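ERR on first pass: missing label on line 2. Operator R.T. fixed the label and resubmitted. Corrected input:
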Amino acid sequence: MTITKTKRLSFAEYLTYSDGTDTRYELVDGELVPMALPTANHGRIVKFLERLLDSEIEKRKLPYIAVRDMGVRCPRGAGLATVRIPDVVVIKLQDWEFLQDKPAVIDFDLEPPVLVVEVVSPATKNVDYRR
Amino acid sequence: MTVAQTKRFSFAEYLTYSDGTDTRYELVDGELVPMALGTGRHGQIIDCTYRVLSQKITDMAKPWVVVQGQVGVRVPRGAGLATVRIPDVVVIKLQDWEFLQDKPAVIDFDLEPPLLVVEVVSPSTKNIDYRTKRTEYAGRDIPEYWIVDPVEHKISVLVNSDGWYDLQEFAMEQMIISPTFGELQISLS
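pass 2 clean. output:
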């Protein structure tokens, strides 16, 4: 087995990382993991869920907002930085406002999201259900 | 509601902390949590598990060592504050055990995770053993976690696959099957 040395990024390095393309990356134990482009159907379900959650939040007058493209820093492994980007995240409005001019990642200094939603695609099945 | 300010310990502070007594503490999100003294039966099951694993490791001629209740394991959880669990039984590589000889006996993030951790359930730790630690040990990439439950009379063998523990349950006196250790029996007699 060949062991490839992978460059590990710190959380701070991840926040400012750009490869010059539009590829989005999650960070798992300090390793960049590119997110595959979803199918149209996947995108449709995500969009539907975001709207559904927002309308339910409005109906119940909850101080929350449903958003896409929001990173969530998570604990795992041996303490190296891990950031997931769930398909939909529901967070408190005040946290959303706090993040307006910052990288859109919920770091450990903020409360965890109220809800995260993942829409499974065949490629992410194990990661969604297990990791 | 009154919110009591709790002192939060860093991992380094935890390693050198002593309250002058023999009380052992786990560290959860930086908070010291004293470990209750186990019952006689609790201790007996730990002893038995230790002996069975010891024998098995000898039979398999593996460079592993089984340790009882003295090794802490640093685990990831919550918002990144330090958490250290002290499982009832831990199996680690001999080289890691030797590395720890003159250091505080905690498997920090710079060491590989243990091969196996075992918790013996008591009524007061039931939820933590079945729920909280299940997530923490899986998150630390520990390949196997056994929960020995004398109240429900069963042993749960949890096997890590892609970061999630799959469950296989065995009756207390039954042979259990473990991917790492094969078949073995933890009995009280």
